[in-house]
Design goal:
single chain; 576 residues; alpha/beta; ABC transporter transmembrane region fold; Rossmann fold; 2 domains; 6-stranded mixed β-sheet; elongated; binds adenosine-5'-diphosphate; binds magnesium ion
């Protein structure tokens, strides 16, 4: 998974990776050559008393060190650059994929998890990449080269390597087996923290209103302690790793000096070779340690890679058809025998609904809470796919249309209005970027929002906070209505968005709307009889079934459910 992900995302940076590898090879070879030169200085210069030789080799060594230093700096820079750029690309890819998700796909992952995946998980991979890009080149060359050079300097002493390398490798193996399973659970626990945090921040008013601060704090503390526990377990193992490896390293040095010293005094090994050997054994064991550090990051990065790939591999449940049809935008909406059940639920929320909405007509949908009004409305822009039957917009099944074209013709005002951080104007121009100020004011006037926007400091440029929290619920709804009006769509869907308005504003708004929407198909979902009484046609929904269709007057006579609603709201007198 990790390899596949990296292979795709590193491809654009092939050249940079190649240059980086070349620099690293040069740097490592230089590092391997230095101790050899050092041995020569001691053997042929110091011991032999040849000053000229010392100076010549010394200058050569200094130059080499400089070159190695420069290569190393460039290499580190390149490695950071490539890993950062790769991370940025991955974030972009995950973002693009999540944008194509349907409501159902988002629910499958959960908002918090999607955010963690696009931030923390990609960061893990970035971190890994930065280390891996350099060390995966250095470590093998350094260890193999070091062994070769060590044998070259002192064949007898090299038998020591037969002990220290296996000891080191065995130790690393044990650590890996203990640590790997912890990583995946760590990422899930970060998800959990983000989820709790998100819920508490968005639900802060409810938490206070119900005096649940303490229990919520406890819930967070639990999630937090859980993550900390796992992180501590991992770190306890790591805390042991470094000192143990240092011990192995130092014991090896001591052994080299112990045995090497004997060989030197016996005369079977030149003193220079001993110093070189000492450096080589350090280089070998350091490169083994480097390899360890990278391998420790592998399982963590792999866990993250899997989580990212899960997102990238998700085929959105609702996608554009392969051969889309672009219908003539008339504005007609036909539901034929539509049944619908939410994913994962057996119970149908809508049952065999057949109803037609035509341009120039205002239809109202009324029914108790939970009767399926919102669900019916969300099938029209294809936020969900029907379980059976068909939804046709402009005479073509919505599943045969390109989603963007479908949405372009629909002005949806959702039940809970959503505003973005910015200003009143940026929120309204969400519908049409080139709308003029005059058009914005006109839409605000129709939506009965002109007065309060004019009273806001800055008018159209008045700031709107994230989620629109600095305006009231009713104001938010009116801004959302204005936004839909600016789009000038053929089809208007008002989902219960008049409920937060007082009766007088409601009436004025509906009267103003009539002239704005004469040629359009208008579908108004409402709870209040007064809101829908004057609609051309009323559809009564009860528990997912259409139980009545007609004008207010007709329904009062023919539909028992409707009569009940009218009586409960307006009293018996309204029936006469
Ligand atoms: N996302 C969802 N997942 C599962 N069930 C849902 C979902 N949204 C709504 N429902 C169920 O569908 C039914 C109809 O809901 P809805 O269309 O919102 O009703 P209304 O808008 O008329 O109040 C309700 O019983 C509700 O429990
Ligand atoms: Mg609803």
């Amino acid at each position: 998974m990790l390899i596949r992900l990296l292979r795709t995302h590193l491809r654009p940076y092939r050249t940079q990776v190649l240059i980086l590898s070349a620099l690293l090879v040069a740097q490592t070879v230089g590092n391997l050559y230095l101790p050899n030169l050092n041995a020569d200085i001691i053997n042929d210069g110091v011991v032999a008393g040849n000053l000229h030789y010392i100076i010549r080799t010394g200058v050569w060594m200094i130059l080499l060190t400089f070159a190695i230093g420069i290569f190393a700096v460039i290499a580190v820079y390149l490695a950071s650059r490539v890993s950062m750029a790769t991370g940025a690309d991955m974030r972009q890819a995950v973002f693009a994929r999540v944008q194509s998700f349907s409501a159902r796909d988002v629910n499958h992952f959960g908002t918090a998890s999607l955010i963690t995946r696009n931030t923390n998980d990609i960061q893990q991979i970035q971190l890994f990449l930065q280390m891996a890009l350099t060390m995966m080149v250095i470590a093998p060359i350094m260890s193999v080269g070091g062994i070769v050079m060590a044998i070259h300097e002192g064949t007898k002493l090299s038998t020591l390597l037969l002990v220290s390398i296996p000891v080191m490798t065995a130790f690393i193996g044990v650590v890996m087996v203990r640590v790997i399973p912890q990583f995946r659970s760590m990422q899930t626990k970060i998800d959990r923290i983000n989820q709790v945090l998100r819920e508490q921040i968005t639900g802060v008013r409810v938490i206070r209103a119900f005096v649940r601060r303490e229990s919520e704090a406890e819930r967070f503390a639990r999630a937090n302690a859980d993550l900390t526990g796992t992180a501590l377990r991992v770190n306890r193992i790591f805390a042991l790793t470094m000192p143990v490896m240092m011990v192995i390293l130092n014991l090896s040095s001591v052994a080299v000096i112990w045995f090497g010293g004997r060989f030197v005094s016996e005369g079977s090994m030149p003193i220079g070779n001993l110093t070189a050997f000492l450096t080589y054994i350090l280089q070998i064991l350091t490169s083994v340690m480097m390899a360890v550090m990278v391998t420790i990051l592998v399982p963590r990065a792999a866990a993250s890679a899997e989580r990212i790939a899960e997102v990238l591999d998700t085929v959105p449940a609702i996608a554009d058809p392969t051969s889309p049809i672009t219908p003539v935008p008339t504005g007609s909406v036909h539901l034929t025998n539509v049944s619908f059940a939410y994913p994962g639920s057996e119970r149908p929320v809508l049952d065999a609904i057949t109803v037609a909405f035509e341009p120039g007509m205002t239809s109202a949908i009324i029914g108790g809470t939970g009767s399926g009004k919102t669900t019916l409305v969300s099938l029209i822009p294809r936020l969900f796919d029907v379980t059976a039957g068909a939804v046709e917009v402009n005479g073509v099944d919505v599943r045969d249309q390109r989603q963007e074209e479908l949405w372009a013709g629909i002005g949806l005002v959702p039940q809970t209005a959503f505003l973005f951080s910015g200003t009143v104007a940026t929120n309204l121009r969400f519908a049409r970027r080139d709308a003029t100020d005059a058009e914005l004011w006109r839409a605000l006037e129709v939506a009965q929002a002109r007065d309060f926007v004019a009273a806001m400091p800055g008018g159209l440029d008045a700031p709107i906070d994230q989620g629109g929290t600095n305006v009231s619920g009713g104001q938010r709804q009116r801004l959302a209505i204005a936004r839909a009006l600016i789009k000038r769509p053929r089809i208007y869907l008002f989902d219960d968005c008049f409920s937060a308005l007082d009766a007088a504003t409601d009436t004025r708004l509906r009267e103003a709307l009539v002239s704005e929407t004469t040629d359009a198909t208008v579908i108004i979902v409402a709870q209040r009889v007064s809101t829908i009484m004057h609609a051309d046609r009323v559809i009564v929904l009860d528990d997912g079934l259409v139980v009545g269709v007609g004008t207010h007057d007709e329904l009062v006579k023919s539909c028992e459910s409707y009569r009940e609603i009218v009586i409960s709201q307006l009293g018996e007198g309204a029936l006469r």
